[in-house]
Amino acid sequence: MMKQLLLFLFCLLPAGLRANTDTGKQLKVLQLNVWQDATQVDGAFEAIADEVAAHRPDIVTLCEVRDYHGIHFTDSLCRSLRGKGLLYYTCPSKDGGILSRYPIMESGALDSVSINRAVIDVEGRQMAVYAVHLDYTHYACYLPRGYDGVTWKECPLPAAVEEVLAQNDASQRPRQIRIMMRHAEKDIEKGMPVVVGGDFNEPSWMDWQADTKDLYDHHGFIVPWTTTRLLHEAGYHDAYRTVYPSAVTHPGFTWVASNEDAEIGKLAWAPKADERDRIDFIFYKGTGVRSVKAAVLGPKASVIRGKRADETSQDPIIEPQGTWPSDHKGVLVTLEWQ
Q: Under 8 Å CB-to-CB from 1, ≥6 apart: which residues?
């Protein structure tokens, strides 16, 4: 009798409360490259605040936070959001910025300003958040497209994938992600899940497989890109690719965004190539965490061979409120934490 009574009372609860009981805490996470401290497009700073206010992510990771003119970017962003009635916390940063709707318990940069870490308190449970902006040099994903990733000049296609990986691994990206993972393992050992958001300046190995080798100017190359492969082998989950496993139907391109307020010459680096890639990521690792929803945030159009064109994929693309602040598109995911 008591069991039946409890079941009846449970059914009387509002649907939202029942969902929380069944699925646990949901956290919305946004990753966005702000394009040189939001200095490249008129009204970019206000546009970033508007996007955060519209979508109200619980965690925001930002790249290219430069603090030009001695003004701390994320502090200013939090003040702007307070003016919109939203409370966000932040911490010092010089490239990878972090905002949180939950209190930040501790924070600090790792190795360089390109990796920033914060521990947030989510209603009594702690989570470690890493904002990373990895090395932009030796941009090897342009080699299969006929451009050198160091000089940006046109070049012959490489003879083998080993040439591509050699140039890629001459960058600091693999070293940087290993530093992040070593530190994050300490968080995981303490029982904290880890969320990593950032501009990796490198594609995912999951997006350069046999099913895409003849797409997007990959020119037959299958490339096990080092940085995302290291994360995968260490047990991290790619939040977007977890929700949308196919890189054919859901490529999830974040580069190059067709920003209508910027000249194409400021956006595209390889005007004769299809240089689209997914280089902005949200990864997670930890017991009881999974990705349940994902979308691209930004203009529907990308730049393809020096021209603007709307995407025709099945990716959910959330178009901006007005001005778009970046040359990247953002990633917006919902994580469920049991």
A: none
What are the tokens at 78?
A: 């939090």
Which string of b and e fits 236-259 if b means at least 16 CB within 10 Å?
bbbbbbbbbeebeebbbbbbbbbb
- 28 forms beta bridges with 334
Its sign, for the CA torsion 286, 287, 289, 291, is: positive
Distance CA 128, CA 119 (A): 4
Whose CA is closest to 168, among 195, 187, 149? Answer: 149
Q: Which runs of E-coded beta strand occur in 95-252?
A: 97-100, 104-110, 112-122, 125-133, 194-199, 237-238
pLDDT digits (tens, 9 = 90+) for 59-116: 999 999 987 767 799 999 999 999 999 999 999 888 999 999 999 999 999 877 789 9
How far the first Cα of the chain sits from its last, in Å, is 29
Number of domains in the chain: 1
Q: How far apart are CA 78 and CA 289, in angstroms?
A: 27
Which residue type occupies 207? D
Specify if 232 maps to a domain.
yes
Instruction: Show the domain range for 295.
Output: 25-337
CATH of the domain at 30: 3.60.10.10
As given in the structure block, the two tokens for residue 28 are 């919305």
pTM of the model: 0.92
Residue 237 in domain: yes
Residue 17 included in any domain: no
The answer as to whether 18 is a domain residue is no
pLDDT tens digit string along 168-205? 999 999 999 999 999 999 999 999 999 999 999 999 99
Residues 6+ apart with CB under 8 A from 244: 250, 252, 294, 314, 315
